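Subject: Sanity check before I submit

Could someone independently write out the structure tokens for this chain? I want to compare against mine line by line before I put it in a report. The sequence has 203 residues.
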Amino acid sequence: MESLSIKENVTENNISSGKNSTVKNILYKIEEGFCIAAMSLMALLPVMEVLAHFIFKTGILGSSTLIAQMLLFTGLLTGMICTRQNEHLSISFVQYIPEGNKLKERLKTLSSLISAFTAAILAWSSVSLIKIGLDDVKIIGFISTQVMALIIPIAYGVISVRFARRAGLTGWKIIFAFLAVILGTAASFPEIVKIIWGGNWEN
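---
Independent answer below. Compare away.
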């Protein structure tokens, strides 16, 4: 009976793990799809602009603004993907330390935690920028610059969480990964106050 119960638990865990993996893969595909779409649109718009000038003697309304937005989307989405695949650009002396060295692993962990902390600050700061610093200008129909700019906090939030996971901490040490994101949020307190009440809270 005990053996049967263990087998059932293992089977349930495998099914659960398989479902999580499927959902994760779908989310990854969506992420990559948006990135490819943004890159394609960014490349096609100038060509369409030239053709529009040649055929209709006029350009595409708001094309330059839309290209800038697609550049923003592409940069942030590729940043998310690189962080996910642990291929984010980094400049450090850690790469010169031989593999298997405990110091190298600890420095990698520290680097990931600092990156998670910094990305959390950038995420909250970008929300403040969108609410206070951007004009509500329409780009396409009802879609405004503020709506398009939401990719900034979303991307930095995802990057922060992924860096925290990349720290590779397990057991009770995983609390340090949570702390990196929480401390980044705490350090952004002035920006959060601006998001809630607007304007400069010190005045």
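---
OP: Matches mine. For the report I'm noting this point. Residues 4-13 have pLDDT under 50 and may be disordered.
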